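Researcher: I'm preparing a figure for a lab meeting and need a structural model of a single chain. I don't have an experimental structure, so a prediction will have to do for now. The sequence is pasted below. Please return the structure as tokens so I can convert it later.
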Amino acid sequence: MANDPSLRTVSLSRDGAGAFTATNVRGGIVSVGSADSDFTPVELLLAAIGACTAVDVGTVTARRAEPESFQVRVDAHKVRDEQGNRLTDLAVTFEVRFPDGAAGDAARELLPKIVAQSHDRLCTVGRTVEVGTPIATHIE
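Model: Understood. Here is the structure written out token by token.
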């Protein structure tokens, strides 16, 4: 598996009570843990959903015109029920402004199409959440 180009890996190291550092293979780091940390695991999931689709949408629309502003908000409700703790009502909201002119018009026209394509096919994080996949756990 070490040579598997499809494998994605993140490692977590415990820094203290409820505090961890996540590290990727390129050396990127992010703090995660309880509500006192920079990001909770739930917030990281929301950020991953938003970032994944924002990268898709931003990359494609910027080929037409650089946005004047580009904001993405991801909302969800955390519930506890017979299925356990989970998020419901996930929603991704784009607030994007393009400049006036032909290039901005082309980007505005493309925006709904690429948002739909990201949601329906391109965004790996969103697709994984919507399609669902089992999570195996191991102890070594």
